[in-house]
Amino acid sequence: MTGTTQREAAVAAGLRDVFATGRTRDLQWRLEQLRGIERLCDEREREIADALAQDLGRPAFDSWLADVAPTKAEATYARKHLHRWMRRKRIGMPLSQWPARGWVQYDPLGVVLVIGAWNYPFYLSVAPLVAAFAAGNCAVLKPSELAPATSSLLARLLPQYLDAEAVRVVEGDGATTQALLAEGFDHALFTGGTEVGKLIMAGAAPTLTPVTLELGGKSPVIVTADADLDVAARRIAWVKLLNSGQTCIAPDYVLAARAVADALVAKIVENLERFRAGERTASQRIVNDRQFDRLAGLISSTTGTVVAGGGSDRSTLHMEPTVIVGPGADDPVMTQEIFGPILPVVPVDSLDAAIRYVNAGPKPLALYVFTESTELARAIIDVVPSGGAVVNHVAMHVLVAQLPFGGVGASGMGAYHGRWGFEALSHRRAVLAKRTTPDPTLFYPPYSRLAVALMRKIF
Ligand code: NDP
Fold first, then answer.
1. What is the pLDDT of residues 222-231, one digit of tens each?
2. Residue with CA at minimum distance from ligand 1 atom 14
3. 10, 118, 309, 411: most buried by Cβ count inside 10 Å?
4. Which residue of 178, 196, 342, 416 sits with most ligand 1 atoms within 8 Å of its CB, as the best mutation to test the pocket?
5. What positions carry a catalytic annotation?
6. What residues contact residue 94 under an 8 Å CB cut-off, 6+ apart?
């Protein structure tokens, strides 16, 4: 065993021992962990924002908005509803089982592995922990080493706010993740790109560790001819700028009805400029060289027309918010998930053409539709599969703890947030409780003709 695998083995074994004590099943223990996460968000907001500024060059308010506030909201929502979620659900019995009682109870799974992402390195590490603790599990967190300041902050702070024996933070890279997976867990929840998602699933297979994969993809925005263009442009521009476009549910590209495409592009560009006016520079920081080079390559190789932005500075990893009009379908900016401040807008001749365009690719994590017609919005949602969908806004569904958050097909499997997270990390256990009386011997073999007739009726 190498030094690294020894560490992972010891962490997993330690957590299994803690789970075996049974203390994490208790409602009060779960509530204490959730309160701990709420306090962490309240008391350490400044330190979290500082770490995110180091890792991602983010303004402090954006870090509150996109990392701290949604994490606290998840914890608060779970704390308020947990008692009800944990109640066993009585099930009516079929005649064949009378007299008996049946119910579904939600058992903790055991030890859950959370593999965090670099783009929202606090939220995407701690929100899955909310689900893990609400469900009464122990957890090991492997934060992203691509956001090193946040990773070390989590390693330092989580033990101060949570049951330090029941949650362990293991820092490291992809090899650490694989070494952890090799230990076998009761569940693994990963957030990241689709390609690494496949490697996570492969790493989990030998130990039959079930996985929830929160992946990405190209989330399209369909803007119909009757849409409110002012609102659409504002909302698309605002969310695209968040975290320099490095958001799994960012609007990836826009399919606009040809009649309104020019006007929409002009309004999006205007809003991008207006929203950046208060900043020191119009450009936005990209996480690292690798992502910067990939994004710069998307701009330099595009077959579309760059109508805004296009500039970048590798020495500071800064890139201007860029709008590209009319790239071809096989242009890399239309085939790769963008994950940066680049917005292609493709004019389309009909709604059917837009629907065919999206459905020709893998199922996206989110679908956004701007239209004033409720019927049209529903009709589009019904024929374009995606993990989630929003009408007349983008990305806001992630903030609604009452809704399940997750992908479908290549954009992921499983979902969490709110009750859905509690269920994803619980075992939904069937229990049938019978009495010993009555116990008619009629129903044991050898079966009489009467028994056969009765059993054929009852079962
Ligand atoms: P990813 O998070 O997808 O992948 C990078 C991480 O995966 C690194 O920590 C890396 O470790 C690790 N990794 C690499 N190989 C393995 C392996 N065999 N087993 C386990 N972990 C491994 O981000 P990228 O930076 O690669 O981004 C690629 C794309 O992913 C982005 O362009 C974006 O489209 C998407 N993405 C989506 C996110 C989301 O929230 N849905 C979040 C982040 C990215 P190491 O450094 O050792 O290689």
1. 999 999 999 9
2. 174
3. 411
4. 196
5. 214, 248
6. none
